[in-house]
Description:
The structure is a homodimer of 325-residue chains.
Chain A: H1 13-20, H2 24-34, E1 40-41, E2 47-48, H3 51-65, H4 70-73, H5 78-91, H6 106-122, H7 126-140, H8 142-162, H9 168-180, H10 182-185, E3 197-201, H11 210-221, E4 225-228, H12 235-245, E5 249-253, H13 260-274, E6 279-283, H14 291-297, E7 300-301, H15 305-318
Parallel strand pairs in A: 3-4, 3-5, 5-6, 6-7
Antiparallel strand pairs in A: 1-2
The structure holds a DNA duplex (30 and 30 nucleotides).
Amino acid sequence: MKEDQANPAQYLISTVSKRSGVKADLIRAWERRYEAVSPSRTEGRQRIYTDQDIARLRLLNQATNNGHSISQIARLSLNELHSLITKDMHTSNQTQPHIRPIRGDKHELLDDYLEKCFSAIIAFEATVLERHCENAIAELGPMSFIEQLLTPLLTKMDESLQAGLLRPAHEHMATSIIRSLAYILRTNRPCSRQAPRMIMSTPTGQLHETGALLAMIIAEFKGWHVTYLGANLPAEEIAAAVKYTHARAVAINISFRNDDSVIIKEIRRLNTLIGKDVTLIAGGRAAVDYQTILDEIGAFRVNNYDHFKLVLDGLRAQTSFQDYA
Amino acid sequence: MKEDQANPAQYLISTVSKRSGVKADLIRAWERRYEAVSPSRTEGRQRIYTDQDIARLRLLNQATNNGHSISQIARLSLNELHSLITKDMHTSNQTQPHIRPIRGDKHELLDDYLEKCFSAIIAFEATVLERHCENAIAELGPMSFIEQLLTPLLTKMDESLQAGLLRPAHEHMATSIIRSLAYILRTNRPCSRQAPRMIMSTPTGQLHETGALLAMIIAEFKGWHVTYLGANLPAEEIAAAVKYTHARAVAINISFRNDDSVIIKEIRRLNTLIGKDVTLIAGGRAAVDYQTILDEIGAFRVNNYDHFKLVLDGLRAQTSFQDYA
DNA sequence: TGTTCTGTGTCAAATTTTTGTAAAGGTATT
DNA sequence: AATACCTTTACAAAAATTTGACACAGAACA
């Protein structure tokens, strides 16, 4: 356990430049003028950067492109940079999901992050896990992070839990961290008034909400106005939320096969309560176990996030004309 | 205690102009003539604005468009501007009542925010609730937000829930929003390696985690390195987390009086598992119901956040020499 | 009615500051 | 030796600053 076990400083400036998108000259200028990063040095005075430095530079790059002055933001923390950029998206009505020119070996990069995150979980290092996730979000972008890093990570966690390699405490810790990242991941865009609305929740007895949370983020990316209700909610409450918000769709996440009779009853009840005009979508690892009931009532069941996106697009297209101002 | 605002983001005039919709020239004129804003300066005299300044200018812009004279409203507080504009919306042709610039009346400000947040909850407007909370955090700072706005709000929500004024769906929605704010509220300071560590969770059967979440944030403010585990965790798991992290204290939150035998058993088990060297702290609305067992095993019970802070300080002082870098 | 005063928004010129880029000459690494 | 880095210095474009002036609408005044 030395100074920074999980973070062996390792990258040279050319690598950092490629991965962050900031030219090497400029990286040095930013360091010299504003101490934007503080890399350590080799014996021969060459700069050595960490993952965090890369994430920083990437965010700084994005923020300056958004019109911020480098001198003013150079010393902000990763966290602060995140919220800064989130706010930018929030205000400047149409900042596109930023370019992610991850050139080179993306696969290796993902594996690297996956390994690092998993190690942090095993070591019960919440702070390290959080930092790695923040870095990954900055480098990969929210979507890739969710689909290509987080999903495999959650799967791996689940397997390890089954295998007894991890304890529930590990999983709780990791889940809390991941959940807290939702704020960064969400593109708090103003969400035009005509955006179709959706309720996202988890039926009674389903306590795990990670899946629902990520699905919410994805739906928001797809332009939906999602009202997120958390986990473990009875059908009447979900239906009430639909009425209040005039939602056009309800998505529920089923991660575990607890007590079939309860879930099936809840689904059936929810279906009758929301009426025919509201689309019901069910996803999650255990949703497949309820295929029959879902078919019977004419609800969608989605297998994965791509499938979910397709269904969402279909719903948007199918209904009244939307303005894509 | 420095003023450690969660919002050190700073903007130059061009950004401010774009975001607020007020031309840069005019912003300067308003400052020169009416001190509408008071930006700080860089070394080279460039103006530096905060988020609040932007909000201010946006409101001033809107108010002037509504016919108000800039010289009359330039010095109103954020909050007063808010109510001015909402009043404009409601009473389209009313003689504007005397809006006294009663700044400094924090009580009124808090009541106003409380009212707005609660209305947003009743109306099931998640987005509005979130925006009000974000504004309040910017204006009040994280600590005041938690202790003076959020705590009363949660109490009020609870009463309304009991009275049938709100449905559980309302509460779930609001809780999700509040939880997502944790990321902003947390002082993600590096947390020096010598910071005392603490495990925060909620025992089996206790599904509400808002209290634990806020307690975590407060403990972090107090310089603790908190590992947050979420809700509904068996004693063995909490104890395992203590072992992994070498935590010096465990805090559990008990919000509801569910099944006494379970909770008492869990507390007792937790106490034996963590050993004598680890301090157990219990808080939450229903913690008082378990006073006897807590006394018996020599655990702390805290009544409120101030009490919690006192206990935390006591623990820090009592143990080995800490660095207050 | 006509004149003046005041409050407001806008513009322009001259000057500074900020910031990305680059060249030159030396050092490390492979 | 070839390539990649480092430091220092310089430079030019973009953005901000200050100062002062101007236009115009309403209010005040004669």
